[in-house]
Write a structure and sequence with these properties.
The complex is a heterodimer of chains A (342) and B (267). Chain A is built from 11 helices and 12 strands. In chain A, 30% of the residues lie in helices and 23% in strands. By secondary structure, chain A is of the alpha/beta class. In chain A, the strands form 2 sheets. In chain A, strands 6-7-8-3-9-10-12-11 form an 8-stranded mixed sheet, sandwiched between helices. A 4-stranded antiparallel sheet of chain A has the order 2-1-4-5. In chain A, helix 4 crosses helix 5 and helix 6 runs parallel beside helix 7. Chain B is an alpha/beta fold and 267 residues long. Chain B has one domain: 3-Layer(aba) Sandwich (Rossmann fold). In chain B, the strands form 2 sheets. Chain B has a 6-stranded mixed sheet with strand order 6-7-8-3-9-10, with helices on both faces. A 4-stranded antiparallel sheet of chain B has the order 2-1-4-5, with helices on one face. Chain B starts with 6 loop residues before the first strand and ends in an 11-residue tail after the last helix. The chains are: A alpha/beta (342), B alpha/beta (267). Chains A and B meet through helix 7 and helix 8 of A and helix 7, helix 8, helix 9 and helix 10 of B.
């Protein structure tokens, strides 16, 4: 892993949403990570923790009310926040960085056929390309991914949810982007279709069509099967980043522990599992408390935790945002409360 | 888990067809099952398999095309308005979207007080308020924090717990929980599941848990019914369904759910 090329580098990225009342909703706060070539990086977290905002911020395209505060993103060595918007649209989005949205239903244009949609899209990026060439390319790609190419002649409403999502995945990767951010690509699908979509994404990766993937989901069992590394996000921050096995089976941060403990899968032994109960809810991102953002719900928080902003502590190939790591280690990495009343 | 063998509800040949002629859709096709008092049973199926239609039929919100529903030994298939009220005192439901189940213009307290009005209760105002407080505490909410709030001021988990409190106020015999955790996060989900389990353990409430998530179903239930295209294709104890499924559809379903220990993508 050490010798591999870094394709994406996010440094201390901070972005926020500007509300009409002039408030700032700090959705992404001090996020830093590196993505190497040939790596699948998972981001896990609950709704509203900033996962999707992070993926959108990385594209450098800040659509109001989303705004950039500080930090930088280097995509293959290019600082993309320094580029102008037209360059981003034409040269970065789709070609180097592609974003697969959550609901494919809204991503396709309902009034035109899939093929016209693809032509529209490609013409934006490659004005010289002929329609015939575009269609040939798309058809080849669909065939290599074993998607029926007849869907090109259909309207989105004629496709099932799973098929729409797979079409969106295929279209978003037509220009062989280096990095793909898949934002909950399967959240609206049932388990069998979910598996098909994820297999498709994995195929794109295995075939070398995309170099690296950022996979965003709240479904932890899925991350277990596709990721190399995982980041756990809470209230706009990464609280733990590490190898998949470490984070899922042996988490350190109290929040990651609670999150991993709440996984329920149909597997022997799950019935006897004790589920953790965290009191309260995540902080309001308009008025973030000083100190650790998880302190109010944390079973082991002390006064010290609420004093100043907590930095990431590096522990070899894992980093954790907690000042009580020593205590957690002493407890054998088990600090989750079980069945506590709210 | 002391379990009664007494049957609380039995469904015979229940069928629901939407539409007619060529466009007819058989949403529920001749299903039969029975649930014992104090049991937690899960109805598991993919979207469109007819799970919600079954809950609506049991609640008598939909008229069946064919079949019978027998509740506590009595045929409730053809009950009329007044009898329905009596029936609903014993059978309550919580739905997927806790937001849609509230009157957005009234605070929580009014929503809960209205419940009494609906069911002609003879309690005095003080008694009602006391009961509301107790019930809210039993769902792990602080009454003084929530009673004066409007639904939009509450978080998803709180809303869902108030829904459970509302159903619980009536002390139903049978609680139908239709995807109560699908709109909330994993951490809050644990709370709701524990709550449902404790309702059964302390009040002996029978629960039918409707979900698409086999993992959840396995965790909470004693028995699981697998539903596919309007039919119950397999039923059995939770352990048996998960560890030794028989029907090909159940096998496929279990194979497709991502698990922690086994390989998933290659299977």
């Amino acid at each position: 892993m050490t010798t591999k090329k870094t394709v994406l580098e996010v440094n201390n990225l901070k972005t926020y949403y500007q509300t009409r009342l002039g408030e700032k909703i700090k959705a992404v706060h001090s996020v830093s990570f590196k993505l190497c070539e040939g790596e699948i990086f998972g981001i896990a977290g609950e709704s509203g923790c900033g996962k999707s905002t992070l993926a959108m911020s990385i594209s450098g395209l800040f659509l109001p009310p989303l705004k950039h505060e500080s930090g930088s993103v280097f995509l293959e060595g290019e600082n993309i926040f320094k580029k102008d918007i037209n360059y981003l649209r034409k040269e970065i989005l789709g070609k180097k960085y592609s974003y697969i949205p959550q609901s494919a239903m809204n991503a396709l244009n309902p009034t035109i056929k899939i093929k016209d949609f693809v032509i529209d899209l490609m013409k934006e990026h490659e004005p010289e390309m002929k329609e015939k060439e575009i269609l040939e390319l798309t058809r080849d790609r669909f065939e290599s991914l074993s998607l029926p190419s007849r869907v090109l002649d259909l309207y989105p409403l004629e496709l099932s949810g799973g098929m729409k999502q797979r079409v969106v995945v295929a279209i978003s990767t037509l220009m062989n982007p280096v990095v793909v951010a898949a934002d909950e690509p399967t959240s609206a699908l049932d388990v069998s279709t979910q598996k098909m979509v994820i297999k498709l994404i994995k195929e794109l990766f295995d075939d070398g069509i995309v170099k690296s993937i950022i996979f965003i989901t709240h479904e932890l069992p899925v991350l277990r099967h596709i990721c190399d590394r995982i980041a756990v996000m809470y209230a706009g921050e990464f609280v733990e980043v590490g190898k998949m096995e470490d984070v899922i089976f042996n988490p350190i941060h109290p929040y990651s522990q609670a999150l991993m403990q709440s996984i329920l899968v149909p597997e022997e032994g799950m019935k006897e599992k004790k589920l953790p109960c965290l009191p309260g809810s995540p902080p309001d991102l308009r008025k973030i408390p000083t100190g650790c953002r998880f302190a109010d719900r944390c079973p082991i928080a002390t006064e010290e935790c609420k004093k100043e902003e907590v930095e990431m502590t590096s522990l070899g190939d894992r980093s954790v945002r907690c000042i009580r790591i020593n205590y957690i280690m002493m407890q054998g990495k088990k600090v989750t409360p079980y069945g506590t009343k709210y | 888990m002391a379990q009664n063998t007494e049957e609380i509800i039995r469904v015979e040949n229940l069928t629901k067809v939407f539409g007619s002629g060529k466009k007819a859709v058989k949403a529920v096709n001749k299903i039969n099952f029975s649930i014992k008092r104090g049991e937690i049973v899960s109805l598991v199926g993919q979207s469109g398999s007819g799970k919600t239609t079954v809950t609506r039929l049991i609640l008598r919100l939909l008229k069946e095309t064919e079949g019978k529903i027998i509740f506590e030994g009595k045929d409730v298939t053809n009950i009329k308005s007044e009898e329905k009220k009596e029936y609903w005192k014993k059978v309550q439901a919580i739905f997927q979207d806790p937001y849609a189940s509230f009157n957005i213009f009234s605070p929580v307290k009014k929503v809960l007080l209205d419940t009494f009005k609906l069911f002609n209760s003879s309690y005095s105002k003080k008694e009602k308020e006391k009961l509301i407080c107790e019930t809210l505490e039993s769902v792990n909410l602080r009454p003084e924090e929530v009673v004066d709030k409007y639904p939009f001021e509450l978080s998803g988990g709180q809303r869902q717990r108030i829904m459970i409190a509302r159903a619980h106020l009536i002390r139903p015999q049978l609680l139908l929980a239709d995807e109560p955790t699908s709109m909330i996060d994993a951490n809050l989900r644990s709370g709701i599941l524990e709550l449902l389990l404790s309702l059964r353990d302390t009040d002996g409430c029978t629960i039918m848990f409707v979900t698409h998530d086999l993992g959840l179903a396995y965790y909470v239930s004693d028995r699981i019914f697998i539903m596919h295209e309007g039919e119950i294709v397999e039923e059995g104890s939770a352990n048996k369904i998960i560890t030794a499924p028989e029907h090909p559809y159940t096998k496929q379903l279990i194979k497709d759910v991502p698990k922690l220990s086994e390989e998933w993508l290659t299977s």
